[in-house]
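Researcher: Hi, I'm a grad student and pretty new to this. My advisor asked me to get structures for two proteins we've been looking at. I'm not sure of the right format, so I'll just paste the first sequence and hope you can take it from there.
Model: That works fine. Here's the first sequence with its structure tokens right after it:
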Amino acid sequence: MRKLALCAILVAASGCTWVHLTEAAEDVRIGYAGDVQSCKMLGTVTVRTQSKVVMERSTSKVQEELYTLARNQAAPMGATNLLPHGLPDAGTQAFSAFRCPQISEGLAAR
């Protein structure tokens, strides 16, 4: 009975997301090359999460955690946008961090 309960807990935990978005990171977006053409590159952010807890975790949960971790790490840099460097590999993913002009800034300059 204990083994069954332990297995159920491990299976349930393997699908959970443990990483939470910070308030500062709420405005950091994950984008694509077309989204950052008029932006200043600030650097690279590389993040890692567990892709396996006893068994492989859901790809979407791992990606969600990587995005959250990257947004959290990029916010203190002053980044507004992140551009992924390809797909995650074994729970690791790199992003280019950019500071992009806000739409309201462009309107104010007119």
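Researcher: Oh nice, that was easy. Here's the second one.
Model: And its structure:
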Amino acid sequence: MALGALLSPIFEPYHYTPTQISTLGVIFIISGVISCLIVGRLLDYYYKFLLTLRIVCWGSTAMAIVAIFVFPLGNIYLTAILMVLAGVLILPIIPVCISFACEVTFPMQAAMINGGVQLSGHLIGFLMEVIASYLVTVSTLVTLIFFAASGLIGAIFTIFIVEQLLRK
């Protein structure tokens, strides 16, 4: 959410035009929505929640690190490719977390779990957006490093998660 809210301030210092920034945002969202549909279906079929969570978290971190080097180049084609990959890897975190949470908290009601996951996600997203909004006034590079470091922290935490599926 923080990345989406700060697209213009992140890309403008690297001389991307408003049209290019909007196009990159659309590319990010469309690739992410398609990825969410595919990942959600795969989770329903294979039940590989923890593996998928790790792929999403480590992949998102990798994309954030690559962004530190690609965005400043000002190359719209490389950036567009990165935004497709970022959308594919970042946006599925929502269905992955909701599905995984429903599995490990069964028999609690799915609606309650969904609400709790959504609430915590929005609170963390809001906090990250506030921090990133300040950092982008300091330096775009510092903001990109903040996103990469945040992703890395989340990815490291996935190492300690134990997959104990109760609903399956």
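Researcher: Is there anything I should tell my advisor about the second?
Model: You could mention this: The chain has a mean pLDDT of 91.
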